[in-house]
Amino acid sequence: MTLAPSTNNVDPLLQDIVGPTPGQQLRRRFFGHRGLMIGASVVAVLLVIALLAPVVAPHDPYAQDLLARMKPPVFLGGTWEHILGTDHLGRDYLSRLIYGARVSLLIGFVAALISGTIGTAMGVAAGYFGGRTDAVVTFLINVRLAMPVVLVALAVVAILGGSLQVVIGVLGLLLWDRFAVVMRASTLQVRGREYVSAAQAIGASTPRILLSEIMPNILNNLIVVITLEMAHAILLEATLSFLGLGVQPPTPSWGLMVSEGKNMMLFEPWLVLIPGAVLFVLVLAINLMGDGLRDVTAPENRS
Amino acid sequence: MSQSDTPVLELRNVTKTYSVKQGLFGKSKPLTAINDVSIKLARGEVLGLVGESGCGKSTLAKILLGLEAPTSGEVLVDGQTLGGQDRLALARRIQPIFQDPYSSLNPRKNIYDIIALPLRVHGIGDEASRQKSVREILDIVGLPARVMNNYPSQMSGGQRQRVAIARALIMKPEIVICDEPTSALDVSVQSQILNLLNELRQEFGLTYLFISHNLAVIEHLATRVAVMYLGRIVEEASVGGLFDAARHPYTDALLKSVLTPEPELGIPDTHLGMSYPNPIAPPEGCHFHPRCPAASDLCKSKRPTPLFDPNGRIECHLHSP
């Protein structure tokens, strides 16, 4: 990241500073933070599983077997053939869960990326330039905050039809508000520091000031918001899919799995509990990671 | 006028007004931060600028650095107006040293990147020559070359201020605006930094505008002093003249307010009484009259005109002819 020192080409004689380099310190703090380690490991494991889904999944997630419907998972008396049982169409539940992780993570990453780009650009511009830019951005944020996300997403999906691309697009265009609010406030705070005035007095261009003086100092806040919004997008996708307007069947999605299982919830609660628990674990892990990254990269920790 | 007589830096009738909104739907009111200020800085001199917090000292510094545009009046560098000069060219001639070394260094950059930034922005030299320049300037400000890889948080306040000085001087500017460069430092470090600034001035022939509220610092460093009150320069004189015989009642009060280490003298009473006036609604007449021990009826109604004499300038009815 931007935290590594950019002095690789400095005279080797100067490298012999006493004590650990900032890079080493960062690594040490990174690996010493328990919450961050737990969160990052869970996310990493889920990411690897999602990427390797065709290799890891024991069955085809779309293959139906009407003779083997609603088989319970192993721990409820099922067989090792279907470790987490099968759904109402006889599809292997574990395989669907693994392929569903692809959908959730993809939506989380891409929606956070789109909304993060929009929101950060707006927030930084508003905070740095102030005046009319700020008034316009603040107005847009207020307009956006006045819209109920789920209702707008439902309406758009109902008009355009539910597909992965539409859901990602809608969430990406709806979730930039927190980015804009947080980035605006952080930029306002950093903008008043004297090192920004110093860079202006040196004659540095505005893009250079934004990229090398402002951005590195608001990055830790951005990371936290990215993780929060990623978790938010994943939950919203699950909500939309649960309401039948998100990812369309037979594509496996965790929200859709909860939705399909809800009719049998009273008799076969694991149909809802398993995807619900995985969703919970992923969102918790992402949030732990965000909190940890903020702790680790905060400059006041650097001593 | 010959070249050497041209002031290296001059402000002519500079006024800066901000509009302050009162409440969300309130009316904007003008706040005059700087009111008709004219100063001249000759090459090699140190002009001390003193005044209370909020009197407009830092706004003046921002205008001189080109960070804020004056509402009216003009700033001249070597006889040329500031507006007509390229921003980069101006940056090579005027550099600031700020008050708080904890806020003036980017915590995310190492010392080398901080000091080399001016060279990078101006495209001076290649990486190898920049390294050499940074090492030289570090030596000049009294820091070992190995701090280049350190981050600001790994350094003390005094060391940071040395880094800030190094950044300001690496392009060999002519004028340095020192905005209270020692007020955030420990007393023991203050004198080191002041001595360093003094040595650097002699070595590089720098011109300083030295902003401070610490009169002892001004007496130590400055050659001339300007006293500011509510955006106006109320008195200007040589250091000796001002400290020996202050003419404006406000200057007098400032001099009396200096704390001494003698406990039996007690805390000095400035007789200034009431607090600093609201700059949005400055008092009628002479701005200083509500706090002035010698105020007369004339002071309440009529603003004094500045009087220029061999000693400098004074803006007070007591000294009007």
UniProtKB/TrEMBL annotation, chain A:
Name of the molecule in the record: ABC transporter permease
Transmembrane stretches, start-end: 36-57, 103-129, 149-176, 267-286
PANTHER family, A to Z: OLIGOPEPTIDE TRANSPORT SYSTEM PERMEASE PROTEIN APPC (PTHR43386), PEPTIDE ABC TRANSPORTER PERMEASE PROTEIN (PTHR43386:SF25)
Stretches assigned to the ABC transmembrane type-1 domain: 101-290
Organism: Parasedimentitalea maritima
Keyword Metal-binding: no
Localization in the cell: Cell membrane
Keyword annotations: Cell membrane, Membrane, Transmembrane, Transmembrane helix, Transport
Bilayer topology annotation: Multi-pass membrane protein
Xref: Pfam families: BPD_transp_1, OppC_N
PROSITE patterns named in the record: ABC_TM1 (PS50928)
Family (UniProt): Belongs to the binding-protein-dependent transport system permease family.
Domain of life: Bacteria
Automatic annotation (TrEMBL), chain B:
Keyword entries, A-Z: ATP-binding, Nucleotide-binding, Transport
GO biological process assignments: peptide transport; transmembrane transport
Lipid bilayer topology: Peripheral membrane protein
Major site of localization recorded for this protein: membrane
Residue intervals of the ABC transporter domain: 9-255
GO cellular component: plasma membrane
Pfam families: ABC_tran, oligo_HPY
Xref: NCBIfam families: oligo_HPY
Designated name of the protein: ATP-binding cassette domain-containing protein
Species of the source: Parasedimentitalea maritima
